[in-house]
Amino acid sequence: MRIAKNDIPVRIDAPGAIARQKIDFGDATGYGKISGEYFSLGAGTDISPLLKGLKGDMCQAPHWGYLLQGEVTVTYANGTNEVINGGDLFYWPPGHTVKVGKDAEVVLFSPQHEHSEVIDHMLHQMGG
Question: What backbone phi and psi angles, to 5 degrees, belong to 121?
């Protein structure tokens, strides 16, 4: 699920302050501690080969985040694709992979245990 900043409903609109809130933006039930993550990804980066061997050959950690700049295409387990553009807020449920269309700067918040397992797997796939 992605949503552009201007599509997030305004809850407070006062001089010098605007607060936007999108409710029901993913579910963190059952997850423990989260990690804050910052990724710099070059155009053409495709993480799919690094996810081989995981369930469904996809990342199984959910992520909530913000794309500061660039463009990424997320492919979900059901085969649908979603293009995330700079300025978009997003939620990626478990069962996804990512390919970068334009150099991207991404901020993620993820369950640290689940995403650390995925990152460790990717490092192993890279031979590290």
Answer: -65, -45
